[in-house]
Amino acid sequence: MSVRVYNYIPELLNLDQISYTKYLEELTERLSANEPREWMIRASINNATKPFAEDPDRDRAFQTLLDFDLKGMSQETTAHVVQLLPCAVDEVSVHILPAIESKGGGCCYGPGKLLLGIRCDELAPLRLKRNIAHEYSHTFRFFQKPYYDYNGFSPGTPKSMRDYLAFEGLAMVLGDTLYPHPAFVPFAVSEESERAFWEKIDIAAVGDEAYMKYMTLRAYEISSRIVRSYLAVQGCSIIEAHNATDEELYWKSGYPFIR
Predict the structure, then answer these.
(1) From CA 59, how far away is CA 144, in angstroms rounded?
(2) Quick check: helix, strand or coil at residue 156?
(3) Residue 136 in contact with residue 82, Cβ under 8 Å?
(4) 58-96 pLDDT tens trace
(5) pLDDT at residue 208, as a whole number
(6) pLDDT, tens digit (0-9, with 9 covering 90-100), for 157-168
(7) Which residues of the chain, if any, have pLDDT below 50?
(8) Which phi and psi (to 5°) does residue 86 adopt?
(9) With the C-alpha atoms ordered 15, 17, 21, 24, is the resulting torsion angle positive or negative?
């Protein structure tokens, strides 16, 4: 398996607002071409990177990221995660962009296609590693119960919200396990807040619309709790858990709130 890394941050330096926005729009179109889940690419870039257009100090923020060897770290991290979780994809491409403080993260928009939004701070290297682990987890899982027929990239069987909670929880816990750091604390979800989540969610809802409606920060934390409960109940590692089905991860988690 080969790994290709595309760091777009240097190309975003020294641009005026119009040129900056135009570059991102052209990049969005280029990455989105013929991609069934192009909405993920558009949402990631629009929400995380485009807002810098009006920031007069964005070059200074971007330089924080350029002080690190993000390309080398991406190569090394991807190789490590692939060694732990080998799958049938021939190539992993990692696309790196800066992200505003509240929107760091990324998406796996196709098999082995990782788009990362990295916040501009001293924790950027660790954010990068955790994000790669998280998004690669999705690539691995696509081959377990794929969204698409990867021979033609046509829409396949959609996931339910039960599946999504297992799917995202697995990725969350993988990043936390491989690259822990005390600065990365769980999103605060009280028992009252969690009860409200379970009362309001249509747990049988399927597809992208359900994902966009229900997969909030609170849902991501709850998804992590479900998977951590599965690991404890089944006595297995996060690597071993990647070979379980979404249904097994969910229903055999022993998590008290599931229904």
Answers:
(1) 41
(2) coil
(3) yes
(4) 999 999 999 999 999 999 999 999 999 999 899 999 999
(5) 86
(6) 678 999 999 999
(7) 148, 150-154
(8) -70, 140
(9) positive
pLDDT, residue 151, reads 41
Q: CA angle, 8 as apex, 6 and 13 as ends, to 5°?
A: 155
CA atoms within 13 Å, Cβ hemisphere of 229: 19
- 227 and 255 Cβ atoms separated by less than 8 Å: no
What is the amino acid identity at position 37?
A: R
Query: pTM value?
Result: 0.94
- Smallest CA-to-CA distance from 71 within 15, 136, 4, 123 is with 4
Number of residues in the chain: 259
Give the H or E element holding residue 149: strand 148-149
DSSP assignment letter at 188: P
Return the SS3 of 245. Answer: coil
Q: Give CA separation, 141 vs 32, 116, 168, in Å.
A: 22, 18, 10
Spatial distance between the Cα atoms of 56 and 175, rounded to a whole number of angstroms: 33
d(CA 29, CA 114): 16
Cα–Cα distance measured from residue 160 to residue 205, given in angstroms and rounded to the nearest whole number:
5
Q: Tokens standing for 188?
A: 């605060």
